[in-house]
Write a structure and sequence with these properties.
The protein is low in regular secondary structure and about 350 residues long. Helices cover about 5% and strands about 10% of the residues.
Length: about 350
């Protein structure tokens, strides 16, 4: 494999899971779904790195998986020798422009995570592309993807994108990650009928809307936005995981048709009662910490969830009760984890 990586790189798909899918411990999972940056990651030093010349990097024309992570590459060039490449990782470099990739027609995965790219462009020849990651750049628009009709996973986490647009042709898209951008409205998703997972955490969204066409959606994350009402979810009949923490929600409602939910996260909102979820019999994880729950009788809403294993209720008025954990155990005998602590038998 052609590589000039300074630090040991992980596989592309495993790396992405830290950004948008479930990985690590519970707190890490919640932060990644929320579109937050890893607090352990060192801050920029302010010292500008000097790009290296691509002529100094040896490439194997027979290689299918090419890893050029953290090589201080400043310009994409000289890659036409990679006649058989299917996976190309150029993450953590100094690249400012997507260019000179037109000969890589067999490419299936392209990783440009953590560069200095301002525009999605010059991708029209990469018609076999399944996975594209341009997270942690400085993009302002979703554009230039019209020919990538085979794309299944698109990661645009932590850019400066202001609107969801120009995705109508990506009818086979299964995962869309737009967390940590500047999006205000959920829109232009109607044609994405194959979408399985949608991540919109840490934006400026005020309303749950325009989701009716996403019948196959199983994961929806809109954490850390400005949502005040649970609505617009009636068509998401296959939804299994719903993440709405760190918003301004006051009432649990609008979940009548979401009977397949296994994970419901409404932590860090303004909810005073657990209600309207007794029909969620497949629920396994219920996150309700940092709210205003004070009535023990509300736990009756969870008794029909025979497979419920994890409940988070810390930092609610309920927690002031000296018998807090014992009362949860008695009310919900299937639970194996209360807050961050497993129950010992």
């Amino acid at each position: 494999m052609a590589s000039l990586s300074v630090s040991e790189s992980q596989e592309m798909e495993v790396d992405r899971k830290g950004e948008s899918e479930e990985s690590g411990d519970e707190e890490t999972k919640r932060k990644s779904l929320n579109g937050e940056v890893d607090p352990q990651e060192p801050p920029p030093t302010g010292k500008e790195e000097v790009p290296v010349d691509m002529d100094t990097i040896t490439l194997d024309p027979e290689e299918e998986d090419v890893d050029l992570v953290h090589c201080r590459i400043g310009k994409i060039e000289g890659l036409e020798v990679l006649r058989k490449v299917k996976t190309l990782s150029l993450r953590q470099n100094l690249i400012k422009k997507i260019e000179n990739l037109e000969t890589l027609t067999l490419l299936r995965e392209l990783d440009l995570y953590d560069n200095q790219i301002r525009r999605l462009e010059n991708l029209q020849n990469l018609t076999e592309l399944d996975v594209l990651d341009v997270s942690f750049n400085i993009l302002r628009k979703v554009e230039g993807l019209e020919r990538l009709t085979r794309l299944k996973k698109l990661f645009l986490l932590h850019n400066k994108i202001g609107a969801i647009d120009n995705l109508a042709h990506l009818t086979g898209l299964e995962m869309l990650e737009l967390g940590s951008n500047r999006i205000r409205v959920i829109e232009n998703l109607d044609s994405l009928s194959s979408l399985d997972s949608l991540f919109l955490g840490t934006n400026k969204i005020t309303k749950l809307q325009n989701l009716d066409g996403l019948h196959n959606l199983t994961v929806l994350s809109i954490q850390s936005n400005r949502i005040t009402k649970m609505e617009g979810l009636q068509s998401l009949v296959n939804l299994r995981e719903l993440y709405l923490s760190h918003n301004g929600i006051e009432v649990i409602e609008g979940l009548e048709n979401n009977k397949k939910l296994t994970t419901l996260d409404i932590a860090a909102n303004r909810v005073k009662r657990i209600e309207n979820i007794s029909h969620l019999t497949e629920l396994q994880e219920f996150w309700m910490n940092d709210n205003q729950i004070e009535n023990w009788g509300d736990l009756d809403e969870l008794k029909n969830a025979r497979g419920l294993e994890t409940v988070y209720l810390e930092r609610n008025p309920l927690q002031k009760d000296p018998q807090y954990r014992r009362k949860i155990m008695l009310a919900l005998p299937t639970v194996r984890q209360i807050d961050a602590t497993f129950i010992r038998f």
